[in-house]
Amino acid sequence: MTSPVVTTPKPPVTPAGPQTPPVYYPTPVPEHLRLSTLPGWNKTDPFIALEALRATCLYKKGRQYAPVCDAMKAQEFHTPDQVLAFLNAHLQIEVDYDNDKGLMTGYFVPDYDARHTQDAEFSQPVRPKPADLVVVPGSQLTPPSRAAKVAARKVGELYVPYYTRAEIEALPADTTYNGVTYYMRPEDYFFMQLQGSGFLDLPDGSRVYAAYAADNGWPFVGIAKVLSERGIMEKNQTSGDAIHTWLADHRGPQATEIMNANPRYGFFAIQPDVTEPVGASGLSLPPGSAIAVDPAHNDLGDLFWLDANAGTLREAFPEYQRMVAALDTGGAIKGKVRADLYVGHGKRAGTEAGRIKHELRMWRIVPYTGKDSFGN
Fold it and tell me: What is the CA radius of gyration of the chain?
């Protein structure tokens, strides 16, 4: 009688889930250069940092970040820990970066109603760059300026500073963009100048993008200070929403006088086919992962860590700690430790942006080369 064949059952095969190759690097980042030593690193959203790095990799093919960008292409990221492990292995803090305290503000791309014809409510023309506005070396200006480049107009054989806000608004308006005109509420236009761009929604359901085209070169003056100094608003109540509401409620000579306290004036170019905001880098801006910087101190495309807290405005989010890419610039963004965080598009983003006025510390984040910035 033949004995039955006894087979040992095999353990069930568990389908393998998505696997990411472990991150290796020749030598570990020295402890004093590790991203994990940054304030708030363990609480940050790694995918905000990843979006910042991806944007940096798009700017001029990554420049000095190219090796990190190439390594990122070989990775798949499925969990926050995988992202953090990659960033910790391939990036470091630049130790010689100044950690003095500065200021972080926020900006957004707004949606505003607009009309093709002027009326009492939509009285403000959207002005294109004037034909007489030129940019010349500061030494050619009368009187001379120390600035490398200045906005000017020519009077006879002399270049003089371009008109102020009040003077521009007193001039006849050239409002034609390829035969089409646009009008906005005055307070909306003022805020669009502060933000640098905006989407204009027309009654027929169409939408166009008003992009920054030029400015008159005058220094920016924040009207929040003007309103608080005159006793019109409490200092801690001068959020963007509160100021916009006051201007709308006092539309006319009173609001105009306050807006004219800021002599800086922006001009726009209408771009009907643009659907996503674009920064000075020429790249789309990832919300929460992009900042505007002063190009005299910080290069476009670089990565930074922000530690911003102690917001001074009522109902402000208490802190922002994250890695971001420098993808934009702004006329009011001056100084090395200065950032304007892009928070998105639309009304909700506008509310958040208007409440950001936070004390800031910044660190530049650079590729890890196996050496610190002193060559050690």
Answer: 26
DSSP code, position 115: B
* Paired tokens of 264: 């800086």
Q: Whole-angstrom Cα distance, residue 340 to residue 109?
A: 13
Plot region of 226 (φ>0 → left; ψ -120 to 50 → alpha; else → beta):
alpha
For 313-341, the pLDDT digits (tens) are 666 677 899 999 999 998 789 999 999 99
**Rounded to two decimals, what is the model's pTM?**
0.67
Pairing mode of beta strands 338-345, 102-109: parallel
Distance CA 93, CA 61 (A): 21
Start-end of H helices in 109-252: 165-170, 186-195, 223-229, 240-249
Query: How far out from the chain centre does Cα 96 lie?
Result: 24
Q: How far apart are the first and last CA of the chain?
A: 80
**H or E stretch including 85?**
helix 80-90
Q: Which uninterrupted H or E stretch holds 260?
A: helix 253-260
User: Residue holding tokens 């950032």?
Assistant: 339
Mean pLDDT of the 82-108 span: 87
Alpha-carbon distance of 360 to 357, in angstroms, equals 9
Structure tokens, 62: 């990554």
